[in-house]
Design goal:
11 strands; 2 domains; six-stranded parallel β-sheet; five-stranded mixed β-sheet; alpha/beta; about 220 residues; Alpha/beta knot; Ribosomal Protein L25, Chain P
Length: about 220
């Protein structure tokens, strides 16, 4: 754990309760006088607090100092990800957060199953937990789009990950890319991209959507 998240980090006095309290004072066995680092994931500062008092269900911490310590993505990459099973999205999200994807826009594409429902609050909680582990100082942004065309209206320079002799390279100027769901994209959706805007991965195998999204993010960012 690189830091502890609290939306109120930066306040002179921080009251810790519920899950954070259980983690710090039961699992980690923090005690009076210990210094604990917090972030609010809204600014780039790391805030150090001293434990001043511990009760049965809460603890009071005092701000000692805060300093700017940004841990940010090296590239501003937006991924338009056609919606797949939310369980698979939730399993993959921490990896994308660690790699440094700036934003994911979940797109309802032609082959997206109608019963798939994504809960933004649940994804944000997963991202908070991931950021605490990897040290990232800002939350990945989450957006939604009702169609691929709507997505392209907002991100017109997007590339498409598909079968193509034009392989993805870290040297390419790609700041937005679309990854299809299981079954890929429809013919009409594929026609929205030119050959120049269609790129592939250097593999002979067919990747699952969640494997493809991690692979292409790694190729572009790392």
């Amino acid at each position: 754990m690189q830091f502890v998240y609290d939306k109120d980090a930066s306040s002179p006095i921080l009251i810790v309760e519920d899950e954070t309290y259980k983690y710090l004072f039961r699992a980690r066995r923090k005690k009076l006088g210990d210094i604990i680092d917090f972030r609010n994931l809204q600014d780039d500062k790391l805030y150090s607090y001293k434990v001043m008092s511990i009760d049965k269900k809460s603890a009071s911490l005092e701000l000692i100092y805060g300093e700017s310590k940004p841990v940010l993505p090296t590239k501003d990459l937006t991924i338009g990800w056609c919606i797949i099973d939310p369980k698979n999205i939730e399993k993959t999200l921490p990896s994308l957060n660690e790699i440094g994807v700036a934003k994911i826009v979940f797109i309802r594409c032609a082959y997206t199953q109608a019963n798939f429902k994504i809960k933004k609050e649940r994804l944000e909680k997963i991202l908070v937990n991931s950021s605490q582990q990897c040290g990232r100082s800002s939350l990945m942004q989450i957006e939604f789009s009702q169609s691929l065309q709507d997505f392209l209206n907002k991100y017109p320079q997007s590339h498409l990950l598909n079968f193509s002799p034009n392989k993805v390279s870290a040297n390419q100027d790609i700041d937005s890319i679309v990854v299809g769901c299981e079954g890929g994209l429809s013919k009409d959706e594929i026609k929205l991209f030119t050959q120049e805007k269609t790129v592939g991965l250097n593999t002979p195998t067919i990747l699952r959507s969640e494997s493809a999204v991690v692979a292409v993010a790694s190729k572009i960012i790392l």
